[in-house]
Amino acid sequence: MDDSSISRELEAQEYLRRHKVLELLNTLTSLLLFHRPERTREFLINELEKLKLARVTDKDYPSLFDESNLVAVFGILDPAQQGFISVTQYKEALKTLGIEMTNLPWPDNAMINQETFKQQVLSELKKANRTFKS
């Protein structure tokens, strides 16, 4: 491979990263497989329109998870129903939901209640689902 080919490949990778193209395709594919619409093309167009509207309003980004899903996840993490989970459990929940987060707002020994869990995860899902260049 010559230098121009390598340079072009690096440019392409940077373009995909900068514009979050792979994230967009993953989101659309996940939504498609979850809903399995009869009219695939119309469904995808509709989801892209929702993304466009979400960008303008900064809310209602398409996501497979809602509050009820997060309550269920919290319940799995808190089987003794103590009302809180550890930061380690929170990090694992984020990984399971496909969210990468390096800087947490709490110390490692903090405990997180269900409401905080829901608010934080919904916020992180919103950030993760901004599948286009801002």
Automatic annotation (TrEMBL):
Domain spans labelled EF-hand: 65-100
Pfam families: EF_EFCAB10_C
Protein name from the UniProt record: EF-hand calcium-binding domain-containing protein 10
Gene that this polypeptide is encoded by: EFCAB10
SUPFAM superfamilies xrefs: Dimerization-anchoring domain of cAMP-dependent PK regulatory subunit (SSF47391), EF-hand (SSF47473)
Top-level taxon of origin: Eukaryota
MF terms in GO: calcium ion binding
InterPro entries membership: DD_EFCAB10, EF-hand-dom_pair, EF_EFCAB10_C, EF_hand_dom, EFC10
Record CDD domains: DD_EFCAB10 (cd22976)
